[in-house]
Amino acid sequence: MAGNNVSHAKNRTRRRFLPNLHKTSLLSDALGRTVRLRVSANALRTVEKRGGLDKFLDDAKVSALSLRARRIKRQVARALLAAAS
User: Fold this and answer.
1) pTM (whole model) above 0.85
2) Residue 66: inside a domain, yes or no?
3) Is residue 7 part of a domain?
4) Which of 5, 26, 64, 75 has the greatest number of C-beta atoms within 10 Å?
């Protein structure tokens, strides 16, 4: 996203609004290990709200996930299916 910095004298200079990204390790209960992902602070809040990485990935649309997150989602789904049978 882009916008303007506006000074007190109304001088405008272009600026960018960048996402608040963090490299973090998230615990997957289904896989039994931690997964390193680069996620935004907002996504971290959503993971906590949904009750963990596994539930977050289960509820998320595939089109909204990165390639790495899609792979992890498939791994979690396979692990949960194997645990159920």
Assistant:
1) no
2) yes
3) no
4) 26
